[in-house]
Amino acid sequence: MSRDRVINVNLSSGEHYDIRVGSGALGALSSTARELKSCRKAVVISDENVGPAYGKLVKKRLEEAGFEVSDLLVPPGEPSKSIELASELWTALAQDGFSRNDLVVACGGGVVGDLAGFAASTFMRGLDIIQVPTTLLAMVDSSIGGKTAVNLACGKNLVGTFHQPIFVCADTRCLKTLLEEDWANGFAEIVKSSFIAPRRSFYEWMRNNAQGLLEHDIDLLTDAVYMTAEFKASVVAGDAHESGQRECLNYGHTLAHAIETAAGYGTVSHGRAVAEGMRFAARLSVEVLGCDVSVVRATDALLDELGLPEIPWVAPPERLFKLMKGDKKARDGQIRFVLLRDIASWEVRAVPEETIIEHLQAWCAAKQKLIDKNGGKMWGQK
Ligand SMILES: NC(=O)c1ccc[n+]([C@@H]2O[C@H](COP(=O)([O-])OP(=O)(O)OC[C@H]3O[C@@H](n4cnc5c(N)ncnc54)[C@H](O)[C@@H]3O)[C@@H](O)[C@H]2O)c1
Fold first, then answer.
1. CA 18 to chain CA centroid, nearest Å
2. Under a CB-based contact definition with an 8 Å cutoff, are residues 67 and 96 in contact?
3. Given 35, 105, 250, 346, which is the most exposed site by the fewest CB atoms within 10 A?
């Protein structure tokens, strides 16, 4: 029995949309799409993994609502977030006679959401888009907030737009087919939210339900998606263009981006890198903000329980430091961290270089021990 819940996102710009979360939420897609759009045409953009299963179902739902529906498939994976594929999508829309009032539906993970969002926001200066996220990460993060992007050879997400969806439909039944690393990516973002969201009860709920989440209990997953999506929606509503509050979403990401780059994209998944980044930031919070050390223990325990243990991977501390300094979120050469005063209370601080280097050295030494224990093998090495 589906028990959908709806989050209303009300942006200061006046834009608003609903996020529907439930194990059966797709059942409402036909009626909601029709209420929102009176147009004739719709296109479902998906990837080759998701299209044959969930994309097909989305197409059926839209046809039931009387849309004339086409579908476009892109190859799965990060390389699809490219200007070349965006251009292929623009061309397909043009050849199919899409006009300004028609509808784009993105069905897939964050890659499809970002690419389809970018194509929709730029084709004819902007077509409406509905996001149907199918990974845990996309449900709790990428489908909400309107950030779209493609990558350049010299960096990730360097070209993009802000383009809010008109509806987000997160059906948690889609999660049953996810692969292991995609669970890790989603859980890392959920853990992140549970530490920075303003209610401590979110973290406490996570601590009490980590085992059930790890076992993929659909009701618990639906609750976790709802709480995380609600939190992200509240942050985005207050800061649609990422000029202030939204910075908190970067918790754990300063070191994570450096790890992902140093390891080579895809070697350490985003979720595992964020998990490492949160362990690091929690320790830094103790020194810089006087946060209680119990928060470090809470961070370690929750990550361990959710299948995000420390990983045997290391790079020279100077290299990680240099990458952090070059991060697009650094300002005037100062590395800024989202740090915790406590669970549910955060602050952004520019941390002195010596402090960062000291912590990086300690982090690297601990990692080296883990690698030695692992027979000298780093994460990702056969
Ligand atoms: N726009 C934003 O605010 C934002 C936020 C966070 C991340 N992102 C972007 O999101 C992307 C990562 O998204 P992702 O982690 O969802 O990866 P992804 O889109 O690459 O999906 C991961 C894999 O899972 C497959 N998949 C999707 N749904 C599935 C399902 N239900 N069952 C089985 N397999 C399924 C996909 O085909 C793919 O192979 C990155 O490009 C990142 O930059 C964007």
1. 18
2. no
3. 35
Helix ranges (H only) for the chain are 29-36, 56-64, 83-95, 110-122, 136-137, 180-196, 200-214, 218-238, 253-263, 270-289, 294-305, 317-325, 353-373
pLDDT digits (tens, 9 = 90+) for 303-360: 999 999 999 999 999 999 999 998 777 777 789 999 999 999 999 999 999 999 999 9
Q: How far apart are CA 147 and CA 189, in angstroms?
A: 16
**pLDDT per residue over 17-49, tens digit each?**
999 999 999 999 999 999 999 999 999 999 999
Give yes or no for residue 192 CB within 6 A of ligand 1: no
Where is pLDDT greater, at 326 or 299?
Answer: 299
The full set of domains in the chain, from first to last, is 5-178 (3.40.50.1970), 195-201+203-373 (1.20.1090.10)
Residue of 23, 26, 49, 74 with the most ligand 1 atoms within 8 Å of its CB, for mutation: 49
**Is 50 touching ligand 1 by the criterion CB < 6 Å?**
yes
From the candidates 20, 81, 232, 336, which is the catalytic residue? 232
For ligand 1, atom 6, the nearest C-alpha belongs to 142
The Cα angle at residue 250 between residues 246 and 252, in degrees rounded to 5:
155
381: helix, strand or coil: coil
With the most atoms of ligand 1 within 8 angstroms of its CB, the residue from 107, 142, 178, 246 to mutate is: 142
